[in-house]
Amino acid sequence: MAPPVALPEIGRGSRGRRANRRRGVSRIYQRGRGRTPDSNAQGDTLNARNDIAARTAASKQLSSLKTGEIITAVDGSQWSVTQPGKEVLGRKGSHNILKDKEGPSPYAKRYVEEGNACSAWRLIISESMLKHIQKCTQKFARETSGDETWSISLHELDAFIAILYARGAYGARTLELESLWSKVWGPLFFANTMSRNRFREIMRFLRFDIKSDRLERLQRDKFALISEVWNKFVENCQTCYIPGGNLTGDEQLFPCKCRCKFIQYMRNKPDKFGIKFWILADSGSKYMCNASPYLGRVEERAPDESIGELVIMNLAQPFLNKGRNITTDNFFTSVRLAATLKNKNTSLVGTVNRSRREIPKIVKDSRAPLHSTVLLKGDDVSLTVYQGKVTKNVLILSTIILVFR
Hints:
Blueprint: H1 13-23, H2 27-30, H3 37-63, E1 70-72, E2 78-82, E3 103-104, H4 106-111, H5 117-124, H6 127-145, H7 154-169, H8 177-180, H9 188-193, H10 196-205, H11 214-218, H12 227-240, E4 241-242, E5 246-255, E6 264-265, E7 273-282, E8 288-293, H13 307-316, E9 325-328, H14 335-342, E10 347-351, H15 361-365, E11 373-377, E12 382-386, E13 394-398
Parallel strand pairs: 5-9, 9-10
Antiparallel strand pairs: 1-2, 2-11, 3-4, 5-7, 6-7, 7-8, 10-13, 11-12, 12-13
């Protein structure tokens, strides 16, 4: 039996921890687990060896799949192993050939005047939208202030919106208004466009709906306070531009702390609180093609339909049957969504959550050699498993490449 080892006295606090490190005392021993430095090192080595052995066994399990082998998922989906780069032709299917010409629509080309930026602006922010905002703002201002002569012109509304755009372009969202109108170092654009007090006054009275019939409209539309202006804005965006062949669907949090039922808290976003919007954008031009706010639980959703499938189908509705491709992340992507879009001549590419039932168990649990790729083929869909990290692989579902040997 080996003689007992004399351990140095263990100190406490920050100074004690530094002294312990100089003496070679293990951190695990400091926590009171009763392990000496030698036994701690032996235990760590043993655990590392066990992890390496487990990863090696899992790697062999996934990499040992042979070409043509059939794998069955929990929900009954069958996947056959295909060798990447050799058995895939890479030719696009007929449902993935764009039939529209990308760019401004004929309507936009007809009404945009060369050298007149206001003509292009008026196609997106139309005069009917401004008149609606003007009517709602004047009514609220007169009722609140008691001044029946209070008014705002369409020109002032354009200038007000221009200041909001400029404030964001200067990155001055968090600055005080006094700084923007400062005579010492403030940009001249703000003072030349509108006085500070007038800007504050418009901001105070600005409204997008009539308060008297608001309760009635809220019964059927949770977004009733601004829905009339918002719907017209989205309609104008779709009318003026024809997107390209690649669209991207995702979520975006617009910072807001107003009092409403659908304010979201997302801790992984820079602004934690806000209104979440589902957005479909053109991947090439970054143009917003469609968008809708998240207003809580959707009653008309089918019991077996996920919220991701419903969102993508609603956003892509105006652009289906045209040969486009939609890219999504693992919140939206599923085999069912891919099949639904394919029936409407639209392809899908996106990362897949490994917890979905259509993913085989061997793909969920196993790991392949680092930077290796395993390609699985299903019914008109492919699943690419890429080992990007030692302990994590990425699953990519696609219906673009459909022609296999």
